[in-house]
C-alpha cells in the first residue's frame, strides 16, 4: 500500500475540472469529486462547504512547499469546526483555499454541492456566502474609515439595497447596540473587543452562510476573549451560521466547536467530535498538543519545530517527532517499520472520530 | 527569607498632551530570592509599565513614585553608573516579540556577547566560549552563534533572548509575555526552559502575562492587576483555582480547561471593556464590569485586604467575609 506522489508532483490541475488524482489511496466516501455525490453521506447534517483531496503547493526557494498535502474536510450546516495545528502546518492556507483566495493545485472546494468555479463572478458570489474574519482587528480595519464605512463596504461591493439598515442590523447582530451610536466612530476610539465586533459585523452584513475565522481571539485580551467566542456561538444558535475556526488554541475548540480537525504538516491527522478527540486523543501528535496545556498532568514536549513543508518525511509524516515511536511503544506493537516507511491514507471527510496513525490502528 | 526585590507603593504616571495617565497606582509587592512571581492583567492594566519601571526603562514623560528596592538598594535613586551595572548583571529583561528585540544585521553570537563585553566580564577571546555555553544552556546548537536572527524560528529567537538575559548571570529576570507570540508546542519548550533555568541557577523571576494558566504553571505566586493596582495576590495555584476577586475569577475562567464540562460550549468572558486610565470609574475601578457589585462599590475604594493565608484581595466581599470571621 503506497501513496502515490502523482498528486503532489503533478502540474497545476486544469481549470474547473476535478482532478483525476488516480492511484491515491482513497476511501469510498471520497470517491472522485462529483457534485451529485456530495450530499449522499448518510450520517452528517447537510454538508455546506467541503475540501476534497485538496493540495496546495507553493514554490519555495527552488523547491515546492506542499502547504496543504491532501485534505478532506467538510463543514456541515450550522456546524462549528475547529482546525487546529501549529504555525506552518497549512491551516491558514487551507482556510484561504476554502474561501477561494487560494486555488488548489489539485483537488477541489465544493460549496452547496457544486465545485467552486474560479471565474470572477462566481468567486464574488462565493465570497458573499463564505466570509473571512481575521485575527487582528486593528490591522483589518482601515483607521480612516468610520465603523459605518467599514461595515458598508461589503454591501456596497455587492450592491445590496437599504445600506443603512443592513449596516445597523449587522452591528446589532455583532453585539454593538444601539448600532447608530457606533456609525461615526473610528477604530481608534473603540476597544479591541469592539473592533473585533466591527470586523464580524462587516462579515455579517452580507448574510453569509459560513464564517471562516482565523485566530479570531488571539490578539484580544483574556476577559474579552470569552465575549467574542460567545458571540460566535450565539450566531450559530440564532442564525444557523456555520464556522471554520482556525486556531492553535485547543481551549478555544473546547469552548465553541462541535468538531475538531488536527492538522500536521499539510494533512489532517485526527478529526472527530470535540469531546471525543480532546478527551481521548488517539494520535500521538494530538496527545502531545493536549499534554502541554498548563493543567495537564504529564507533559510530552516535542523537540524541534514542525518540519519543513518542502521536505515532508517519508512514511508517517510525524514519525521523526513521534513520542510513541521514540519510546519504543510502536516497536512493541510491531508497527515501527511501517511508521518509518509506509505513508498513511488521506482521512475521508466523515464526521465520526478517525485517526491517521499506524500505532493507533493496531492498538485500538 | 530576605526579599530580593521589594516594591513599595510604586506609582507611574505618564504625562501626555491630554493630561496625566496614571498607569500604575500604588503597587506593593515583594519577591523572595529564588522565587517566581507572576503578574497578570489585560492590556492597560499597567503590568508592562511595572516591568519597565523595575529597571528604569520608562520614557522620560513617565513620573515614578514610591520605592523599588533591589537587594535593599533603591533603583529609583541610583546613580546612572550604578544603574548601568545593575542592568544585565543583577537584573535583566526578556521582552515579548523576540523578532523586534534582536538586531537583524548582527550575528546572534555577537549580540549575546555584547553585555558581557560591556560589563567587562570576559575578554574578547573568552566571549566565544561563554556564548557557546549560554547557547547550550538554552538548548541551541553552538554553531548558531554565527547565524542572523532571520535564520531562526520564533522559538529559537526567544531562546536567544533568554540566553542574552542569562549572559551576565543576573539574580533576577523579568520576562514580559515571553511566550505570547509562540505556538503551543514551542511555548511549552520555552516555559520548560525557563522553569529549568530558575531551578538550576536559583534565579528569581518576574513573569508578566495575560494568560493566568501559563503563570500559574511557572510561578509560585500570582499578582493580578487591574487599572494600575494589584487586586489579588497569593499562591498561584490557589489564585488560579479559587480567586477571591471577581476579576481574578473572570481572568481564570477565560482560559478553559479542556475536558471540563462546565466550559464546554460555554465560553465565559467579562462584559464591558477595560477602563480608560484617564477616566477611571469612581470607587472600585472594577465595579462597572463586576458581576457581584454592590451599591457601595461605586463610591468605596477597597484596599487589598487579607483573604486567607498569604493571600489578599481588594474586594468589598472579601472584606465583609473577613470582618465576620
Automatic annotation (TrEMBL), chain A:
GO terms for biological process: peptide transport; transmembrane transport. Belongs to the ABC transporter superfamily. This is Peptide ABC transporter ATP-binding protein. Residues 1-11 have a biased composition (Low complexity). Residues 1-48 are annotated as: Disordered. GO terms for molecular function: ATP binding; ATP hydrolysis activity. Residues 49-290 form the ABC transporter domain. SUPFAM superfamilies: P-loop containing nucleoside triphosphate hydrolases. Keywords: ATP-binding, Nucleotide-binding, Transport.
TrEMBL record, chain B:
It is a peripheral membrane protein. PROSITE patterns: ABC_TRANSPORTER_1, ABC_TRANSPORTER_2. The keyword Transport applies. Keywords: ATP-binding, Cell membrane, Membrane, Nucleotide-binding, Transport. CDD domains: ABC_NikE_OppD_transporters (cd03257). GO terms for molecular function: ATP binding; ATP hydrolysis activity. This is Dipeptide/oligopeptide/nickel ABC transporter ATP-binding protein. It comes from Nonomuraea cavernae.
Amino acid at each position: 500500500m503506497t501513496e502515490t506522489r502523482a498528486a503532489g508532483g503533478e502540474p497545476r490541475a486544469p481549470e474547473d475540472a476535478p482532478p483525476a488524482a488516480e492511484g491515491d489511496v482513497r476511501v469510498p466516501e471520497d470517491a472522485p469529486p462529483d457534485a451529485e455525490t456530495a450530499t449522499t453521506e448518510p450520517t452528517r447534517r447537510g454538508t455546506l462547504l467541503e475540501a476534497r483531496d485538496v493540495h496546495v503547493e507553493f514554490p519555495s526557494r527552488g523547491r515546492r512547499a506542499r502547504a496543504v498535502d491532501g485534505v478532506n474536510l467538510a463543514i456541515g450546516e450550522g456546524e462549528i469546526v475547529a482546525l487546529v495545528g501549529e504555525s506552518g502546518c497549512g491551516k491558514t492556507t487551507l482556510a484561504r483555499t476554502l474561501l477561494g483566495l487560494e486555488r488548489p493545485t489539485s483537488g477541489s472546494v465544493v460549496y452547496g454541492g457544486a465545485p467552486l468555479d474560479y471565474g470572477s463572478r462566481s468567486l464574488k458570489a462565493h465570497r458573499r456566502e463564505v466570509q473571512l474574519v481575521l485575527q487582528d482587528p486593528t490591522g483589518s480595519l482601515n483607521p480612516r474609515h468610520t465603523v459605518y464605512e467599514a461595515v458598508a463596504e461589503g454591501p456596497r461591493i455587492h450592491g445590496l439595497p437599504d445600506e443603512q439598515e443592513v449596516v445597523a442590523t449587522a452591528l446589532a447582530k455583532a453585539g454593538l447596540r444601539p448600532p447608530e451610536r457606533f456609525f461615526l466612530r473610528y477604530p481608534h476610539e473603540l476597544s479591541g473587543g469592539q473592533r473585533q465586533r466591527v470586523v464580524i459585523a462587516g462579515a455579517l452584513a452580507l448574510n453569509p452562510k459560513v464564517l471562516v475565522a482565523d485566530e479570531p481571539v488571539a490578539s484580544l485580551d483574556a476577559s474579552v476573549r470569552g465575549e467574542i467566542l460567545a458571540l460566535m456561538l450565539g450566531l450559530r444558535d440564532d442564525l444557523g451560521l456555520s464556522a471554520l475556526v482556525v486556531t492553535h488554541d485547543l481551549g478555544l475548540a473546547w469552548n465553541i466547536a462541535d468538531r475538531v480537525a488536527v492538522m500536521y504538516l499539510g494533512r489532517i491527522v485526527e478529526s472527530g467530535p470535540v469531546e471525543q478527540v480532546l478527551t481521548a486523543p488517539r494520535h500521538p501528535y494530538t496527545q502531545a498538543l493536549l499534554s502541554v496545556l498548563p493543567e495537564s498532568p504529564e507533559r510530552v514536549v516535542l523537540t524541534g519545530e514542525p518540519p519543513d513543508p518542502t521536505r515532508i518525511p517519508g512514511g508517517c509524516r510525524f514519525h521523526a517527532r513521534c513520542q510513541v515511536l521514540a519510546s519504543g511503544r510502536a516497536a512493541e506493537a510491531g508497527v515501527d517499520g511501517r511508521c518509518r516507511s509506509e505513508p498513511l491514507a488521506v482521512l475521508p471527510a466523515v464526521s465520526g472520530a478517525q485517526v491517521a496513525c499506524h500505532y493507533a490502528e493496531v492498538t485500538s | 527569607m530576605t526579599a530580593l526585590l521589594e516594591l513599595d507603593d510604586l506609582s507611574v504616571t505618564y504625562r501626555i498632551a491630554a493630561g496625566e495617565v496614571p498607569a500604575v497606582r500604588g503597587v506593593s509587592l515583594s519577591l523572595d530570592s529564588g522565587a517566581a512571581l507572576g503578574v497578570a492583567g489585560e492590556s492597560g492594566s499597567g503590568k508592562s509599565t511595572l516591568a519597565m519601571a523595575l529597571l528604569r526603562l520608562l520614557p522620560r514623560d513617565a513620573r515614578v513614585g514610591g520605592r523599588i528596592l533591589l537587594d535593599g538598594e533603591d533603583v529609583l535613586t541610583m546613580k546612572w553608573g550604578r544603574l548601568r551595572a545593575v542592568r544585565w548583571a543583577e537584573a535583566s529583561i526578556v521582552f515579548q516579540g523576540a523578532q523586534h528585540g534582536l538586531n537583524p544585521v548582527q550575528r546572534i553570537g555577537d549580540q549575546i556577547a555584547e553585555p558581557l563585553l560591556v560589563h567587562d566580564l570576559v575578554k574578547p577571546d573568552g566571549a566565544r566560549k561563554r556564548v557557546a555555553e549560554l547557547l547550550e544552556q538554552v538548548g541551541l546548537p553552538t554553531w548558531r552563534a554565527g547565524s542572523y536572527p532571520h535564520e531562526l524560528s520564533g522559538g529559537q529567537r526567544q531562546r536567544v533572548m533568554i540566553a542574552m538575559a542569562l549572559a551576565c548571570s543576573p539574580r533576577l529576570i523579568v520576562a514580559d509575555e515571553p511566550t505570547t507570540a509562540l505556538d503551543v508546542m514551542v511555548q511549552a519548550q520555552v516555559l520548560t526552559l525557563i522553569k529549568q533555568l530558575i531551578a538550576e541557577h536559583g534565579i528569581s523571576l518576574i513573569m508578566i502575562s495575560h494568560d493566568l494558566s501559563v503563570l500559574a504553571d511557572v510561578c509560585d505566586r500570582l499578582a493580578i492587576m487591574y487599572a494600575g493596582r494589584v487586586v489579588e495576590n497569593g499562591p498561584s495555584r490557589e489564585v488560579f483555582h479559587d480567586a477571591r476577586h471577581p476579576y481574578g475569577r473572570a481572568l481564570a475562567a477565560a482560559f478553559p480547561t479542556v475536558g471540563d464540562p462546565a466550559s464546554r460550549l460555554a465560553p465565559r468572558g467579562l462584559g464591558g471593556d477595560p477602563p480608560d486610565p484617564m477616566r477611571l470609574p469612581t470607587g472600585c475601578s472594577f465595579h462597572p464590569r463586576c458581576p457581584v457589585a454592590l451599591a457601595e462599590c461605586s463610591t468605596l475604594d477597597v484596599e487589598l485586604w487579607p483573604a486567607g493565608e498569604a493571600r489578599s484581595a481588594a474586594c468589598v466581599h472579601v472584606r465583609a467575609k473577613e470582618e465576620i470571621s
